[in-house]
Amino acid sequence: MHILLVEDDPKLGPLIQYKLNQGYHTVEWVADPELVMDYLQQAHYDLYILDWMMPKKSGLMLCEEIRASNDQTPILMLTARDAIDDRVTGLTRGADDYLIKPFAFEELFARIHALTRRIPVAINQEKTCEYAGITLDRQTHEVYREGKLLTLTKKEFQLLEFFLRNAEKVLTREQILNYVWGLDATITPNAVDAAIKLLRKKVDDGFPNKLIHNVRGIGYRLFLSEENERV
Length: 231
Fold this sequence. Notes:
Blueprint: E1 2-6, H1 12-22, E2 26-30, H2 36-42, E3 47-51, H3 59-68, E4 75-79, H4 84-92, E5 97-100, H5 105-118, H6 120-123, E6 128-131, E7 134-137, E8 142-145, E9 148-150, H7 154-165, E10 170-172, H8 173-180, H9 189-204, E11 212-215, E12 219-222
Parallel strand pairs: 1-2, 1-3, 3-4, 4-5
Antiparallel strand pairs: 6-7, 7-8, 8-9, 10-12, 11-12
């Protein structure tokens, strides 16, 4: 699943991101709730995980804004508020479920799985990502380019999915690192370059039109080039 996590705690946010990434989810962590609506305009997500208690804008306020925009993506609220009235308020304002802090990660995974079962239409809207002859199936984890099966590692799959979801957009190394590796502090921008080099071999070698391109001084961009040389 492609998950947007909104959590202002600088320790808990990246920890949740890391744990969910390890479970084969792809997670974008946002610490500033005022940036959330910008994220929603740039990408599609299968689930929103919102912290209730944030100083700039509460998870409850975000929930209301999301529903007011006719976005029916499932919302899981993280909260330390365990009173019945608070739970009812969250559910009536648009949340689909809640999880009380502190929580076990096993329960977080279970609630995510339950939301997947309860709202299959929302989860399966983008079962596949497609662009320029590439088809990535997020359920079977199979990737094809023009009918040829590409054998990718878990990280390569996540990298390619990120590129496909942002096709033709310039992505910085920092964005790529945060999306795919999350908390792993041993990964550097140079390691991102090395991983993309390996992905390129699998995606582009043997095909006349190249898809993964350098953007000098910034990062990378996935777009269909009719030229044989990299841009």
